[in-house]
Write a structure and sequence with these properties.
alpha+beta; 2 strands; about 30% helix
Length: about 70
């Protein structure tokens, strides 16, 4: 079972994010965030080859500004 399946089946709509560098709460990752990531890579398939270097801290700057 994939992570998204587990989250959906359990009714979980968000998860806290912890920044290990600052040892602080960094925000929430929501099911909408997953949808935004999928839409981003659907719109920009050429960037899919860079997914191995994907960082959560890039979400606010890149993906959610489109």
């Amino acid at each position: 079972m994939h992570f998204a399946d587990c989250v959906g089946n359990l009714g979980i709509v968000s998860a806290p994010l912890w920044n290990s560098k600052t040892s602080a709460f960094a925000g929430l990752l929501t099911s909408t965030d997953f949808i935004n990531v999928i839409q981003y890579y659907w719109q920009f398939p050429d960037k899919l080859s860079q997914i191995d270097g994907f960082r959560l801290d890039s979400l606010r700057g890149d993906i959610f500004s489109n």
